[in-house]
Every structure is written in C-alpha cells, then in structure tokens.
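Lab notebook, entry 382. We have the chain sequence and a SMILES string for pyridoxal-5'-phosphate, and the next step in the workflow is to get a structural model of the bound complex before anyone spends time on docking refinements. Request logged below.

Task: model protein plus pyridoxal-5'-phosphate, output structure tokens.
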Amino acid sequence: MIPVCHSVLAPYEGIIPYLQEIDRNQVYGNDGPLLLEFEKRLCQQFDLNTGDLLCVGNGTVALQIALLALVEDTANSLCLMPSWTFTASPAAAISAGLTPYFVDVDTETWALTPEIAEAALKNCPGKVGCVMVVSPFGYPIPIKEWDKFTEKTGIPVVVDGAGMFVEISCANTPVVVSLHTTKCFGMGEGGFIASRDQGLMKEIASRRNFGMMGSERLSYFIGTNAKLSEYSAAVGLAQLDYWPTKFKILAEKANLYKQLLDQIQGVRLLPGYGKNWFGGNLIIEFEKPIAKEASEFLHLNNIETKFWWRQGCHKQEAYKNFGSDPLPNTEILAASTLGIPFSVTLSNEDIVYVCEVLEQFLKPSLSSSDLFRGSWILRSSP
Ligand SMILES: Cc1ncc(COP(=O)(O)O)c(C=O)c1O
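Result returned:
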C-alpha cells in the first residue's frame, strides 16, 4: 500500500551535536540557548526580527495562548471559525475559555475570507471576541487582509496556519504554525507563533510561561506551560539543517503532482499548489461529490487515502452542539476532497501511478459498477 503520509525527520547523527551542546550547557528548558538559537534561525527563515516568533510545545497550545492574549473577555465571547478544520482549532478556543461558532468557507480557497467573516458577524448570536482563520493544508493565508479586517471591525484575528511553513508573510495578525510530524517541516511535536506586533508577542511570551515576567515568580496573565524543551529544540535545529534538502525533494514532488493532475479532467488542487507552496499533506478536490468512491477505488489499487478533516468539526460528536451558520460549502468539500499520498519517500513512479489510477477512476466512460468489478485495478495486492 502506498502510504498517504510518511514522515521522515533529520537522522540522529544530525541531532547528536546539539544533544552534546545540551550536556555542556546543562540547561534543559525555560528559554535555554538551543531554543533561542532555534527561534533566531526560524526568524531568519521568515525574514522576521528577533521577538517576532516564539516557539511553543505544539500548535494547539499556541492557539490557546494567542487567543488568551487577543481576547479580553474570553468567557463571554464567541470565536468565529470555520468548521472546515481539524478539531484542534475549536479545542484551543475552548481551552482559552471561548465558545466556538462555526461558519462556512470560500469554495475557491477552502478558507474563511474577510467578506464571509463580515457577513457572518451580522447573524452571530453573541459577542464575537475573535475570528480564527484556518489555512487549509498549508494554503498561504493573505495575513495582511486580516490586519485590515481587524482595523475595520475592531475584532482580533488569529490565523491557525498549522499546515503553513513554505510560504508565510507575517503581519500584525498572529499566525500559528504546527511543527507536528505530519506537517511539512515536522519535528515530532512543536509549533510557533509569529507576529510583527511586538507588544502582543511580549504578552504571548509571558503567557507561554504561566503568565510570568521576570524572575519573581509572579503571574501577571493567565497562562500555561507552552514551552518547548531544549531537547525538542535540538531536534528542531537538526531539522532546520535538513530542511533545504527536504524542501527540494517535496517541492519537486508537489510540482510533479501539479503537472500531472492539471491534465486530468474533474479534479483540482488549491490555487498555487506545487508552484508557490505545498504542505505536509496533499488534498485534491473532485468536481463532483465522489471522494468516498474515489477513496475506495484508490484503496483497491493499493493507494492509501485520508479524509483529514472528516465531515468538518460541526459533524464531530464533541463539537456538534456548538452554534453554526449554514455550511453548504463545507458539506461540499467534505464530500469532494480527499488526501492522497505525499511524502519525501514517495517515488516519482508512485506519483505517476496515483495519477493514472485517478485518471482511470474519472474516465467518463466508466460506470460505477465497472469501478468496483475490479476490471480497472491497476496494481494487484501484494
Ligand atoms: C488545522 C490544524 N490546527 C491545529 C493543529 C494542531 O497542531 P498540533 O498538532 O501541533 O497541536 C493541527 C494539527 O494537526 C491542524 O491540522
């Protein structure tokens, strides 16, 4: 079976020098030298000033502390967010004391737009404390547009850019990136928050460490322990050393997919995919709501697939009772999008094969009974 996702981290030889540094330093947490070095190098990567980017234990806790810093009265506020996301987004809002309210997304980009958010504000059943915009699978959210939204409405915005890394243009609106293994950078567990708003970042730095400032063990803000340990920073630094190699391999694979899928009728990629950006996972959209049938056909042909965001958060047991706008576009995306294999270890032959199987599946002459008779199975089970 060709795996849908297969993560490879920097080899241990690359991590050893950093572990030796930890032994020499005998500092293991709390803004240690490796963490500061990791943050500095990430700032260089995204052309940011020191202090504009802070690492955290994972993306979910990063969203939680960003929300705590952005919203004054979390207990009495809604967090307007798309249902078309992973459940980490509403989980983080709830951890910050907010109540999620689900809204629909744009069909072209699968993301919330300022226009959709503004329209949704008119019907919201309560005070909106914050808008959470979610990047679908690494799609680069135009963050400056959200700065304008905040200037116009007075409502703060956080970008859940968990899947972003390749293309990030920072502004005042904070963006949260996950460095989880399944994401394109991937370092096990980890994440960062980036914003050019220095005051906000100072507060986030404090909330990352129980809301304390200075060495007096006094908490000025509600916070939590969202720090990244020196050991994780060691893995992150080794992963940054490996990143140019990994980036080149993944960029070539994303580009090959783009070229091949562009030639197949009935399926599309998000705008700019494979040219300007890619994420850790690859999701395609069919013109028709046939993702389930496609998934079954691909599985029969030894290709693993995944419905990364299932039917949207509003359909998940834990979140189904939260308020929601009508979500027609989300329903369409749930039925027409599918995660297909993408990883550094995926061979070009496998990419060609996946696209051939997709093309066979989408052939107009095929009836659905043909698809499941097995006559189109291209690669037999091992
Ligand atoms: C859209 C989205 N938001 C948030 C997260 C949470 O990130 P983490 O796993 O680093 O906590 C994820 C992780 O998969 C995600 O996909």
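Notes for the group: The mean pLDDT is 95. Worth checking against the assay data. Residues 169 and 349 are 34 Å apart (CA to CA).
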